Amino acid sequence: MSFKLREGSLNHAYLTDEDIWRIFSSLMSAKSSKSATYKYVLFKSLIENLYNVNDHLELTYEQLAYSFAKMYWNMVAVNGITNHNSGKNARTAVIIMDYQQAHQVPPGWAFDRLAGETQLQIINKMKAAMKVNVFGALYGDTDARFYAFDHKAERLHFHPQVYKFLLNYQSLLVQLTNFHLGKMIEKLNSPLSAAMLLRIEDLSKRSSLKPFEEVLLSYVTKTCFYCQKPLQQGNRQTQVDHFIPWSFVQSDQIWNLVLSCGPCNNAKRDKLAKEDFLVKLIDRNEELLDKMEDGNLTGQFTAYKAEKLEMMYEYSMKNGFDEIWVPSP
Q1: Beta pairing, strands 238-242 & 257-261
Q2: Cα pseudo-dihedral 287, 291, 296, 302, rounded to 10
Q3: Is the distance from CB of 62 to CB of 88 less than 8 angstroms?
Q4: Between β-strands 257-261 and 272-273, what pairing exists: parallel, antiparallel or unpaired?
Q5: Is Nuclease tagged as a keyword (predicted)?
Q6: Could you tell me where the beta strands, DSSP code E, fall in 146-301?
Q7: Which residues of 53-81 are buried (b: 16+ CB within 10 A; e: fewer)?
Q8: How far apart are CA 11 and CA 148, in angstroms?
Q9: CA distances (Å), origin 143, targets 24, 31, 137, 174, 280
Q10: What is the pLDDT of residues 210-264, one digit of tens each?
């Protein structure tokens, strides 16, 4: 009963892509023991945090619990999807419902709108629930070959070949996981509309990037990162853009965010900007790193390396984001 494990060692056997696909397909199929949604949500959390690993390919439980809490909050509190287990309702969903009721949080209130202290309380409760029911379960279903974990150290360690596999096939894996998560949700709840099922893709989205906008405006020139025209003038209002498209990285890191005017942001959308802008962003991040003593930037660059941003750019192209965009003259 692997879900009860407090730690799990990694099976370091060499894995080919074919081996990993076989394990992943079994995990998603009816052969795997799945009575709840949490395995899918953990897998989505792993992918969301691929670029937050340290040099040892490790993630902290807090990083994963944040993604986990955000997704469950958006399912339960925002979209009203309350059933997540075929038996007694999942502890993860109960945490959200209890908190929403106790604090009278209005329906539809997104996770990132909650106060920081409130988010932390929910994250800590989610982390405790994940230790009991989640980390060991997915570990067992992947035959100890995807990751190792340790409750005492509160760290998860990727198998190197699996990590590279997740990078190479990130977009496809997200789509497949979303599809199977949607099927599980529909099985456990009343028939859902197509529109509701499509929202599965957006579980990780923030409702607003305004806090990042305010921080960036404090440190960078108030011009569009792409066209260099002044911001906040007429239809050139300030917007925040994910340099590497959000639909690929599915996480918000200030080192991947830039200030953009409306026309450039709307034109770029899910495209990659020309590589010259990647060099410009790396230079901008170096300038922000020099100001790390400022409290507003504390913790914003914990997992950052220029090489990591370059890797994101490379792997986004490999995952089909190969349409290069340049701003209009």
Answers
A1: antiparallel
A2: 80
A3: no
A4: unpaired
A5: yes
A6: 147-150, 155-158, 238-242, 257-261, 272-273
A7: beeebbbbbebbbbbbbbbbbbbbbbbeb
A8: 8
A9: 11, 14, 10, 21, 43
A10: 889 989 998 998 999 999 999 976 656 899 999 999 889 888 889 999 999 999 9
Whether the Cβ atoms of residue 32 and residue 141 lie closer than 8 Å to each other: yes
Phi, psi torsion values for 158, nearest 5 degrees = -75, 145
Q: What is the pLDDT of residues 92-117, one digit of tens each?
A: 889 999 999 888 888 888 888 888 88
- Distance, CA of 109 to CA of 87 (rounded, Å): 27
Specify whether the CB–CB gap between 285 and 255 falls below 8 A: yes
Distance between CA atoms of residues 260 and 4, nearest Å: 48
Q: What pLDDT does residue 236 have?
A: 63
Mean pLDDT within 148-162: 97
SS3 76: helix
d(CA 35, CA 18): 27
User: What is the token pair recorded at 60?
Assistant: 């902290």
Look at residues 27, 64, 61 and name the one whose alpha carbon lies nearest to residue 45.
64
Tell me if residue 325 falls in helix, strand or coil: strand
Which of helix, strand or coil describes residue 89? coil
Q: What is the secondary structure of 156-198 as a DSSP string?
A: EEE-HHHHHHHHHTHHHHHHHHHHHHHHHHHHHSSPPPHHHHH
How does pLDDT run across 13-43, given as a tens digit for each residue?
899 999 999 999 988 875 555 568 888 999 9
Q: Using CA atoms, how far apart are residues 263 and 247, in angstroms rounded to an integer? A: 19
Q: Which residue has the tokens 């993860």?
A: 92
